[in-house]
Structure formats: structure tokens, C-alpha cells
Amino acid sequence: MSLDVLLITPPSRLEVYQKLAGEFAAIEPPVWSSLIAKYLVVRGYNVKILDAEAEFLTHRETADKIIKENPKLSVYMVYGQQPSASTQCMPGGRKVVELVNEDTSNELKSIVIGTHASALPQRTLKDEPYTFVCQGEGPLTIEGLLNEIKKEKYNYKNVPGLWYMDEGQVRFNKSAEMFQDLDSTLPGQAWDLLDLSKYKAHNWHTFNNINSRNKYASLQTSLGCPFKCTFCCINAPFERNTIRFWSPKHIIKEIKYLVEEHNIYNIKIPDEMFVLNPKQVTGICDEILKEGLGDKLNFWAYARIDTLEDDEMLNKMLKSGFRWLALGIESSSKHVRDGVVKGRFDNYDIEGIVKKVRDMGFYVGANYIFGLPNDDHDTMQETLDLSLRVNSEWANFYSAMAYPGSQLYPMAREKKWKLPDDNNGPGWIGYSQHAFDTLPLPTEHIKASEVLDFRDKAFDTYFNNSDYLSMINKTYGTDTLEHIKKMTNHKIKRKHHTEEVDY
């Protein structure tokens, strides 16, 4: 039977993470590919997933595999390993499509899906080598497009969420409806189309057993986010800021499959905001406890400072195997936080709440951002000092980026701040936090290169801090301690250290 759809994760790791791509970066299962694949399979379509990241393929090898499969529709799933990472993966997709187009004389039809494509659909259609662009979640667009492709005469006008060229003119159809009853419309992830042995957890996720990283999966339990953080682009594929849930009964089936069929206990919940609705969270926990899996599982999930007040929910989460909370602290300075829309925790005791959840038994991965519009050297130092006082088990340090799809993107354009996609800029790879060509935002007070240098200094300062290393050794032991020391020996190369730049 000929292949209807090939869902492709293009290779981006080496450009995005440099030397960190080998031992230290995670290899994420392609959640959206598996969701869309399952949607199509249950409707009778012949579907495969090609994950070039997990298979460590080059662009050339990826293109050769696509051509060999000869699908009716090649679907390029351009996301990333964290919610805002779609843009930095665009160059990898482009390189593969250009090779395929050249070798097949543009015979293979392609469509790109992802946060970036939804944020800039018209520009993507004009500038990138794909046949089509999807604006939205994707399943209805792919199904409608595939059905048209199978006909002798195409009529793309009725395909929801589709951008395409028609006689030299850009066309866009009405948006696809957002799914509401997720259990019935997106009935799970197509685990059987993935080789789950190829995926690897974030190093910190398995600090308790650093050698168990290959027992790992990523399980979506909701879609969307109700918040409107200025620096975030994750809602670009959705019509509005909202959140929809799979039922706890559905989620426990997915968890049991991973445990029973693949002996996987390290599970990431990639939802944009998991710890939000106590009824939903406790419902999932009740199902886990009913199955007796709480002691075996090792989850991590996103939360916010202002969603951690329900101690009954938190205690139940701990009993159910939720070990790690990823918290968006962003900045120590209320003045800096006031310069962006983050939420409603300005009056919350950040340090007190982090201490509370750690005292309860959670591990914390704290996220900090340097270079928000009102930052200067003093406020960035305040944020670094806060991170050292918190001394959480893990910390991510980011430079502020005006990701396409975020409110910062038009703000930066209005201020005429230099962006990676400007003329003579590094292009989309400049939105990667760890790339050689990283180009973050300047602030009202300091240059982009200064922000980036401070971010890199903060990373080294934090992970070489004696208090942190002592805490890690006491909590996890010498294997994890040595792993962290090895990690900090890898220094990220930055363009402005070797070449003259104007930022």
C-alpha cells in the first residue's frame, strides 16, 4: 500500500546545541507527529513518522529517506525541545526540503506545521521551499489536503488552515476548527510508529539515576495556555488563549502503555501549563494511585508560582510520581516583570513558594530570563543573585528573544531593534539560545551581546557554585555531581567573540 503521509522531524541538533547536542541535550519524542499520526491512522490512512533527530541523520540522509518513501504528502513538523523552539529549527527543515525538491524536480508535495509557521504563515509560504503552509494545529488541514491530492483535480479552497500559491497569488482558507473533545478527536499518541529506545530525557530529569535517561517519553495531557506572557509564542497555532484537556481516564491508558509495554517511567508532561486546574491534576493523580504506579514514576511538568497554593493537590502529585516542577520565575525585579505581561504573581513570595514545594519533596527546575526590555546590568545581577539564593536542583538561563508569534516580536520591530531575521542577520538559527549565531534582544539600557555574555556567565556561575555542587552531591551522589562537572567543561562558542558584529 502506498504511503499517504510521512511526518518528518528534520535534523537541527548540531546547529541548535553545538557540542551540547551529543551527551547533554535531550532527544524529545515528536509529540505533535505522534498525535497527528494517531488521528490519521484511526481514519484509515497509511502513515509513517521519520524522526531524523532521533536517528541522528544528516540533511542528505533525511532527504534520501523521504524520496525513498515517496509519500503522497510530506509533512515537516518543525517544533523543538522547548515550547518556543520552533523558529530555530526552521533552517534544518529548509535544507532537507531543498534537497528533496532538487532531486525530484519539485514532484513531492510538502507542508510545514509548527509554531513558527503559524506565527508567520504568509512569510513562510513566500520565503521557504514548502508547497503549502499550515496555520493551526494541523490534523484537519492534513486530512483535507490529502483528500484533495488524491483527486484528479485539486481544489484547495476547502482545506481549512491552508496557505498555498494559486496562479502566483498567496491564498489562505478559513481556519480549521479547534478540537474540543480531545479524547475522541485526538485519541492518543502513535507510540507504535516510534522507536522509543532512541529517545533521551533531559539530564536533570534523571539526576536520581543518571543512567536511566533512555527510558523516556513525552506525554501531552492538554493543549494551549490561558495566559498571555509577552515573551511567549506557544499559542500561535491556536485561535485564542485557552486550554483543553484529555480526560484522566485517557491519560492513564497512555501511562500504562508506556510502563507495561516499554518499561518507561521517566515521563515529561510538555503541556504549556500542567499545574493549573486542581480538578484535572488531582483526577490524573487519582488514576495513577488507583493503578499503584506512584512509587515507580518520575514525571516533570510546568507550573507557575501562582498555581502552587493548593497543598492537597501538591501532596497528591508527589504520591503520584511528580518529582520535578519547572517554574517560570523569569526575573527577580518587579520593575522588569512589570515591563512584560507574565501573570499575577507580582506580590507572591517567590523564594518562599519555591522553598515550600522543595520542602514538600519536589525538585525544582527554575527558569530565568535575562534581557527583558527594562533590564540593565543591576537587574540582571539581581536575578542571578536570586537564582543562587534559591539554589534549585536545576536552573535554565535564557536570553530574551522576540520569537515570531510573541508580543515581543512586533515590539522589537517597532523599536527597530536588530533581529536575527533582519537583512544581514544570521537568520532563524539566531533565535536558538545555544547556537553560535545566537542573537538575543538588546534592552532599553544594554546591548544584545552584553545580555548574551551575562547569560553565559550566569550559567557558569550557577553550576560551578560550591553551594550548588554540595547540594547536588548530598541529594543525588557522586555520579550526578561528576556529570554536572563534565557538562560545565563544555563552553558554548559565540560569534561576537570571534568576529566583529554590530550588536
Q: Kindly state the percentage of residues in helix.
A: 25-40%
Rough outline: globular
Number of helices: 18
CATH superfamily caption of the largest domain = tm_1862 like domain
Stretches where pLDDT falls below 50 for ≥5 residues? 335-345
Largest sheet: 7 strands, mixed
Count of separate structural domains: 2
Order of neighbouring strands in the sheet with most strands? 2-1-3-4-5-6-7
CATH architecture of the largest domain: Alpha-Beta Horseshoe
Got a strand count?
15
Task: Produce a short descriptive summary.
The protein contains 18 helices and 15 strands. It has 503 residues and is α/β, with parallel strands linked by helices. The N and C termini lie far apart (54 Å).
Descriptive account of the structure:
The chain has 503 residues and is α/β, with parallel strands linked by helices. It has 2 domains: 5-172, 3-Layer(aba) Sandwich (Rossmann fold); 201-408 and 444-491, tm_1862 like domain (pyruvate-formate lyase- activating enzyme), CATH 3.80.30. It is built from 18 helices and 15 strands. The chain has helices at residues 13-17, 31-41, 59-69, 90-104, 115-119, 121-127, 139-149, 182-185, 248-262, 278-290, 311-319, 334-338, 350-360, 377-390, 408-415, 448-463, 466-476, 478-488; strands at 5-9, 47-51, 73-77, 110-113, 132-134, 162-166, 169-172, 216-218, 222-223, 244-245, 266-269, 298-303, 322-330, 363-370, 394-399. The chain has a 7-stranded mixed beta sheet with strand order 2-1-3-4-5-6-7, with helices on both faces. Strands 8-11-12-13-14-15 form a 6-stranded parallel beta sheet. It has a two-stranded antiparallel ribbon with strand order 9-10. Helix 9 packs across helix 10, helix 10 runs parallel beside helix 11 and helix 14 runs parallel beside helix 16 (448-463). The protein starts with a strand and ends in a 15-residue tail after the last helix.
